[in-house]
Write a structure and sequence with these properties.
This protein has one helix and ten strands; from the N terminus they run αββββββββββ. The chain is mainly β. The termini are close together.
């Protein structure tokens, strides 16, 4: 299992466990919907994670948001409750495969970030072909 896939699997597990341990959190969220593609084709089953970057003097950043792409590559992210979105602010974008053996057809461009704002946000992720996890 490569580092990105392992990290995403761990993030998904922690995120799922924390759903039952949180009543909504201290951070405001904005809805995030989008699509994962590679060379214009949807990437079904991709695991998407937005990792908030720490801001301000407190160094606090909030919880990561996670989601899974459907057959058309479309996803909706969740942080505290299903479909609620991601913490408002700047995030690192990670995409992994649910099947480490299969991998992804490409990789997220290095250093990709996304700014979540109040309201509804649209995130289009175009993977770089041939740079995905090994098959």
């Amino acid at each position: 299992m490569n580092k990105v896939t392992g990290f995403l699997v761990l993030g998904v597990c922690v995120g799922c466990l924390s759903f039952g341990c949180s009543g909504g959190g201290d951070f405001k969220v904005g809805r995030v919907k989008g699509q994962v593609t590679c060379q214009g084709q949807p990437v079904a089953g991709a695991l998407i994670q937005l990792i908030p970057q720490a801001t301000g003097d407190s160094g606090m950043s909030g919880k990561s948001a996670i989601g899974t792409a459907d057959d058309n590559g479309n996803f909706e992210l969740s942080t505290y409750q299903p479909g609620d979105g991601a913490v408002i602010g700047t995030h690192s974008v990670k995409v992994g495969s649910p099947d480490p053996e299969k991998g992804l057809p490409g990789a997220v461009p290095d250093g990709l970030t996304f700014e979540v704002k109040p309201g509804t946000n649209e995130l289009k992720i175009e993977l770089v072909p041939g740079a995905g996890s090994p098959k």
